[in-house]
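Colleagues,

For the teaching module next term, I've prepared a clean inverse folding example: a structure given as tokens, and then the sequence designed for it. I'd like students to try predicting residues themselves before seeing the answer, so please don't circulate the second half yet.
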């Protein structure tokens, strides 16, 4: 098994070392040269369930289940994450198997017998394609929040929690107009962009306003194949993004700036464990902050690369376009799938919200969709 005694002592699961109710350790790493192993014995309490008991020179006794020791060495983190990533299916609107996208009514998410399976379908669909739907939801904030929170809690941001918005420019963002918005991901200016994006159209009495989704994973694959050097540049050159908001719309008495988000990060972010899988695409041409002016050649190269990427993302070949209607909530992986909106007429009330990436991953892990033991 090749475990060091330091590792074994640090992973002791006795009541003095580990709280098995909270799954937390009770000790930090204090001893860098631990007591010696005096004896190690294998025992079995039930059929095929084995334990190893180790007695240490300081009198401490540790017991490990064989499963625990073997689990830890079964697969490396790189292997298990690579396997999880390989289950994602890049898509074009022409080859996306629409029938495979989860479309689960909210009743099933609450049904004693169907709940687990329904949740699993939604999470699996999100991981594989970056899209899932919850149907038969009342077009109201409270009902939508409760439906979405059958999956994971809604994130609280500067925009609030799940909130309905329309073209009234209540906040300093194009979303609060009736203009078209090209494909982008949200929160490039946040240190951690929202994990999932939630949309629910409460009302629309006019024309247009269709939503378009673009698979960032497919974009990355196509882009790297066609423009390997540019892809590498966008993987290594961090670009700044920002969101600045004055207070004047909300309270004319206090016109000072009340929000200034700023973050600099890569357009294509790779998983730090496997180092070869796209973990996140960050693309929002509107929220680009001023680029620091460096070498003229470098900045030209950057504009060339970003321009080529923008043309590809704007190419209708990659666009899955549909109109959302009241009752159907769409969940989108904001680290992978870009969203856009056509301009529209009439009154349109759209609800939007986020789920944090950590909450989403936690649910994926519980369902065994991403690695549990690494
Ligand atoms: Fe957006
Ligand atoms: Zn112990």
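(Answer key — instructors only)
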């Amino acid at each position: 098994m090749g475990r060091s005694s330091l590792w074994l002592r640090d992973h002791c699961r006795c009541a003095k070392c580990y709280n098995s109710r909270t799954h937390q350790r009770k000790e930090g790493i204090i001893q860098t040269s631990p007591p010696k192993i005096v004896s190690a014995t294998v025992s079995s309490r039930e059929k095929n369930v084995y334990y190893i008991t180790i007695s240490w020179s300081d009198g401490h006794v540790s017991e490990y289940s064989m499963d625990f020791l073997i689990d830890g060495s079964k697969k490396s983190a790189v292997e298990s994450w690579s396997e999880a990533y390989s289950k994602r299916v890049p898509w074009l609107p022409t080859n996306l198997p629409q029938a495979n996208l989860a479309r689960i009514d909210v009743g099933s998410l609450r049904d004693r017998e169907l709940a687990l399976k329904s949740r699993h379908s939604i999470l699996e669909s999100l991981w594989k394609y970056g899209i899932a739907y919850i149907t038969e939801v009342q077009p109201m904030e409270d009902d939508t929040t409760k439906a979405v929170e059958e999956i994971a809690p809604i994130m609280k941001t500067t925009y609030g929690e799940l909130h309905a918005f329309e073209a009234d420019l209540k906040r300093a963002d194009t979303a609060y107009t009736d203009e078209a918005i090209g494909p982008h991901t949200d929160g490039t200016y946040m240190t951690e962009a929202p994990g999932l994006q939630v949309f629910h159209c409460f009302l629309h009495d006019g024309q247009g306003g269709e939503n378009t989704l673009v698979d960032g994973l497919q974009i990355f694959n196509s882009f790297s194949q066609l423009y390997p050097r540019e892809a590498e540049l966008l993987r290594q050159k961090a670009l700044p993004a920002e969101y600045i908001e004055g207070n004047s719309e909300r309270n004319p008495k206090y016109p000072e700036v009340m929000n200034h988000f700023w973050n600099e990060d890569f357009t294509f972010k790779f998983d730090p464990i496997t180092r070869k899988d796209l973990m996140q695409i960050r693309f929002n041409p509107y929220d680009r902050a001023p680029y620091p002016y460096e070498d003229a050649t470098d900045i030209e190269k950057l504009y060339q690369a970003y321009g080529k990427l923008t043309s590809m993302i704007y190419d209708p070949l990659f666009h899955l376009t549909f109109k959302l209607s009241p009752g159907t909530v769409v969940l989108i992986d904001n680290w992978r799938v870009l969203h856009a909106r056509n301009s529209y007429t009439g009154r349109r009330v759209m609800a939007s919200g986020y789920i944090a990436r950590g909450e989403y991953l936690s649910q994926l892990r519980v369902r065994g969709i991403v690695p549990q033991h690494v």
